[in-house]
C-alpha cells in the first residue's frame, strides 16, 4: 500500500503507474485484436461474397456460352486490343478453322491465309449501318457463301471496346433464289396460258364478220372456263402467301349439307372436262358439315384438278363421300400414273412435283399443300395413297355439323377403286 509520500513511496507509485500502463496497453491490444477480428470477418464475408459472385458469373458465362453455341449463326468476339476473345464452334466451322486455335490472336493471325481475312477486316472498318454483306470463296471445286454482320462496341464516350462478327451459312440463299426464280417462271407460265386463250378468243369474237353464232357460244364457254382457271390460280397464290407469312386465314364456317357443293363441283368438272368420266358416289343421304364453303370448294377443285392432270383422258375419276365416326369423309380417286412411296411421302410438300412427270404436267405444285392447310384449319385430316400405274386416292375429313345429332353410323367409304357400300351415284 501507499501510505506516505517521499522516496520510500516512489517505488509503490511507479509500480502502480506501470500496472496502469500495462492495463492500458492490454486494453488497446485487445481493442486492436477485436478490430482485426472484425476486419478479418469482414474480409472473410467479402471473400465469400466474391466467390459466390464469381461462381454466379462463371455459371452465367457457361450458360451464355451454351446459348451462343446453340445459335444457328457463328459469333466471333474481338476485344479492345484487337484480339479474338470469343469464337463459337459454328463460326470456326463456317470458316473451316479450329475455334481454340483462333483465341487470343488478332483476326489476321487467327485467319492466317484465309480468303476472307481482308474482307472481314474491311467490313469491321466500315461506317455504322453498312456492315452487312455476302462473302464467297472456294476450296477446290466447292463454293462457300457466308452472310456476315459486323458491329463495333463503344462506351458512352465513344471509346472502342471491341467488335463482334456474326456469320451465317448462306449456301442455301443461292438455292432459295433459284427456287424463287423457278417459282416465278412457273407462275408466269401458269398465268400466261389462260390469259393467252382469253385474249385470243376475245379478239376472234370482236371480228363479228368471221364468227358464226354457234362459234360465239363455244368461244364464250372457253373464255369462261379459262377465266375460272385464272381465278383458281390467283386464289391458290393468295392462300399460299398468307400461309408463308404465318397469318393463315379466317374460316367463315356454317352448318350446311355438303352434298350440294359436291354435286356442283362434280357437274362443273363434267362440263369443263368432257373427256373424263366423273362419278359422284354418296354413302349417306345427307352430309351435315360445319365448314367454310369457299375454302372446301377450293380443296375439291384442287383435288379434282390434280386427278385430271395426272390421269389419262377417257378414264374415270370418282368423288366419294360419307359419314364415319361423326366425321364427314370425302375421297377423290383417279386412274392416273400414281407415284412411288418416296414421292407419296413428299406429296404435300410445297412446290413438290413427282420426278417421273414433273416436266409433263403443268402447275405450281401448291394444290396439296393448300388442301392440307385448309383441312387442318377445319380440324380435319387429309391423307394420300398411291401406287405406280394404279392411280391415287386422296381422302380428307371434316367435322360434322354441331347442331345435328348423328344417331347412326353410315357405312365406311370403300377402299380405292371399289364401289362404296350402299352408295348412290349422282
TrEMBL record:
Gene3D superfamilies: 1.10.287.130, Histidine kinase-like ATPase, C-terminal domain, PAS domain. GO terms for molecular function: ATP binding; phosphorelay response regulator activity; phosphorelay sensor kinase activity; protein kinase activator activity. It catalyses: ATP + protein L-histidine = ADP + protein N-phospho-L-histidine. Residues 19-53 form a coiled coil. SMART domains: HATPase_c, HisKA. Its EC number is 2.7.13.3. This is histidine kinase.
Amino acid at each position: 500500500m501507499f501510505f506516505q509520500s517521499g522516496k520510500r513511496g516512489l517505488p509503490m507509485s511507479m509500480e502502480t503507474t506501470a500496472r496502469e500502463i500495462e492495463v492500458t496497453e492490454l486494453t488497446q491490444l485487445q481493442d486492436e485484436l477485436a478490430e482485426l477480428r472484425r476486419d478479418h470477418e469482414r474480409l472473410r464475408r467479402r471473400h465469400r461474397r466474391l466467390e459466390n459472385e464469381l461462381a454466379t458469373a462463371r455459371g452465367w458465362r457457361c450458360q451464355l456460352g451454351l446459348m451462343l453455341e446453340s445459335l444457328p449463326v457463328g459469333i466471333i468476339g474481338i476485344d479492345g486490343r484487337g484480339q479474338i476473345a470469343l469464337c463459337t464452334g459454328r463460326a470456326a466451322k463456317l470458316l473451316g478453322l479450329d475455334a481454340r486455335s483462333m483465341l487470343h490472336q488478332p483476326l489476321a493471325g487467327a485467319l492466317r491465309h484465309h480468303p476472307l481475312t481482308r474482307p472481314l477486316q474491311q467490313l469491321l472498318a466500315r461506317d455504322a449501318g453498312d456492315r452487312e454483306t455476302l462473302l464467297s470463296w472456294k476450296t477446290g471445286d466447292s463454293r462457300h457463301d457466308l452472310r456476315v454482320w459486323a458491329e463495333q462496341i463503344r462506351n458512352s464516350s465513344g471509346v472502342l471496346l471491341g467488335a463482334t462478327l456474326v456469320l451465317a451459312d448462306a449456301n442455301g440463299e443461292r438455292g432459295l433464289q433459284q427456287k424463287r426464280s423457278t417459282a416465278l417462271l412457273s407462275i408466269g407460265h401458269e398465268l400466261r396460258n389462260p390469259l393467252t386463250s382469253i385474249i385470243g378468243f376475245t379478239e376472234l369474237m370482236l371480228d363479228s364478220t368471221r364468227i358464226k353464232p354457234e362459234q360465239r357460244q363455244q368461244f364464250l364457254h372457253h373464255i369462261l372456263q379459262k377465266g375460272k382457271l385464272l381465278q383458281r390460280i390467283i386464289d391458290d397464290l393468295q392462300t399460299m402467301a398468307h400461309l408463308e407469312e404465318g397469318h393463315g386465314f379466317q374460316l367463315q364456317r356454317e352448318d350446311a349439307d355438303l352434298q350440294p357443293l359436291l354435286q356442283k363441283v362434280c357437274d362443273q368438272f363434267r362440263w369443263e372436262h368432257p373427256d373424263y368420266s366423273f362419278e359422284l358416289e354418296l354413302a349417306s343421304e345427307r352430309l351435315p358439315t360445319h365448314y367454310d364453303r369457299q375454302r372446301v370448294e377450293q380443296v375439291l377443285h384442287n383435288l379434282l384438278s390434280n386427278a385430271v392432270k395426272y390421269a389419262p383422258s377417257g378414264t374415270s375419276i370418282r368423288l366419294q363421300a360419307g359419314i364415319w365416326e361423326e366425321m364427314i369423309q370425302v375421297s377423290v380417286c383417279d386412274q392416273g400414273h400414281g407415284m412411288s412411296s418416296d414421292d407419296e411421302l413428299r406429296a404435300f410438300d410445297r412446290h413438290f412435283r413427282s420426278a417421273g412427270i414433273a416436266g409433263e404436267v403443268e402447275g405450281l405444285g401448291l394444290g396439296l399443300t393448300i388442301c392440307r392447310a385448309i383441312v387442318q384449319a377445319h380440324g380435319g385430316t387429309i391423307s394420300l395413297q398411291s401406287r405406280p400405274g394404279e392411280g391415287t386416292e386422296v381422302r380428307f375429313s371434316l367435322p360434322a355439323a354441331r347442331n345435328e345429332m348423328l344417331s347412326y353410323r353410315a357405312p365406311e367409304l370403300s377402299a380405292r377403286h371399289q364401289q362404296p357400300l350402299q352408295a348412290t351415284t349422282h
